[in-house]
């Protein structure tokens, strides 16, 4: 069994002309820090896939600063308009190639974070608060997931 953690980025600045470059607000940075510590205390992610968008990168930086992650990849498949089925196929391939890594974190955006959960756990389509983390137990043999919980920052 593997654990897949799906995290939405922290609160970001309002939408502007270039969505990719929106940074986190101060509150968003604090949300990301809080959840980074929560992850360290509960799951200790070993591998991270992160969107190339600035707000997701900044969120992942908080996680990477305090967790001993051995595999990090910027993944263009987990942008807001990405294809969740394609992203999960890619994740499953990475899991099969990196069998020593048991805890995977994806840092991305709405709405794809919800669709990623749905791909792994059919009939589950949660709405994510900013910096929220969904926890999924994943059986790599059957390629099926079980939605365990949704965890949000207190901020």
Computed Rg: 14 Å
Number of helices: 4
Q: What is the makeup of the main sheet? A: 6 strands, mixed
Query: Biggest sheet: strands side by side, in what order?
Result: 3-2-4-1-5-6
Distance between the termini: 32 Å
Helix content: 25-40%
Low-confidence stretches: none
H/E topology pattern: EHEHEHEHEE
Structural class by SSE content: alpha/beta
Mean pLDDT over the full residue set? 96
How many beta-strand runs? 6
Question: Shape, please?
Answer: globular
β-strand amount = 15-25%
Mind sketching the topology for me?
Blueprint: E1 2-8, H1 26-42, E2 47-50, H2 54-66, E3 71-74, H3 84-97, E4 103-108, H4 112-120, E5 133-139, E6 144-151
Parallel strand pairs: 1-4, 2-3, 2-4
Antiparallel strand pairs: 1-5, 5-6
Helix pairs in contact: 1-2, 3-4
Enzyme class: hydrolase
Keywords: Hydrolase
Protein name: Phosphohistidine phosphatase SixA
Kindly describe this structure.
With 155 residues, this protein is an alpha/beta fold. It has a domain at 21-71 and 82-102 and 115-137. Helices cover 34% and strands 23% of the residues. Helix 1 crosses helix 2 and helix 3 crosses helix 4. It is globular, with a radius of gyration of 14 Å.
